[in-house]
Specification:
The chain is an alpha/beta fold. It has a single domain, classed as Uridine Diphospho-n-acetylenolpyruvylglucosamine Reductase, domain 2 (2-Layer Sandwich), CATH 3.30.43. It contains 4 helices and 6 strands; from the N terminus they run αβαβαββββα. α1 runs antiparallel to α3. The radius of gyration is 17 Å and the shape is globular. The chain binds flavin-adenine dinucleotide.
Length: 135
């Protein structure tokens, strides 16, 4: 629970996030935040100030600059499938979760080199016709 003294500065921080991202790329509501505050194992759950969904490197840079200036911890999330509690906030300091789920573009596929350059939020989902879709 945030102390009343901090609440005002956290609200100012959230306002600054909205200014960077717009309201549609920020979740503040506790119920909507909840899935992002828990990892795949469901064993770790700590409240964050908000969840941000930047869509570009420039937006990420602005959010990182803001968090550094305000002393807010950043918790980057990709697919949230890590099993070491690295993608959930810790209780010792206020955190902003930065979900990269809207940064899911495939930038390059090198068929010969059997490699791909993708953005941090791209998730691979198994499908029934998996072999047909594999390179
Ligand atoms: C069913 C299952 C099977 C798995 N099998 C394997 C396996 O075979 N081999 C294997 O290696 N792992 C496996 N894993 C573990 C997991 O899938 C990998 O660790 C995966 O690489 C995590 O990626 P993620 O995008 O979900 O990361 P997340 O869980 O979102 O994050 C993991 C860590 O990376 C940080 N992070 C995420 N994105 C960024 C970013 N862009 N910049 C900086 N830091 C970032 C997070 O803060 C966190 O500390 C498995 C997990 C599950 C649930």
């Amino acid at each position: 629970m945030l102390s009343p003294a901090n609440q005002t500065s956290y609200e100012t921080f959230i306002d600054a996030c909205v200014e960077i991202l717009g309201p549609s790329k920020l979740i503040c509501d506790a119920d909507e935040r909840a899935p992002f505050e828990t990892d795949w194992l469901g064993q770790n759950s700590t409240a964050a100030l908000a969840v941000a969904f930047p869509e570009s490197t420039a937006e990420v840079a602005e959010v990182v600059t803001l968090c550094a200036r305000e002393g807010i911890a950043i918790v980057p999330q990709g697919g949230r499938t890590g099993l070491a509690a690295g993608a959930v906030p810790t209780a010792d300091r206020p955190s902003l979760i930065v979900s990269l789920s809207r940064m899911s573009r495939i930038r390059n596929i090198d068929v010969q080199g059997r490699s791909a350059v993708v953005e941090g939020g791209l998730c691979w989902k198994p499908c029934k016709t998996q072999s047909a879709n594999m390179i």
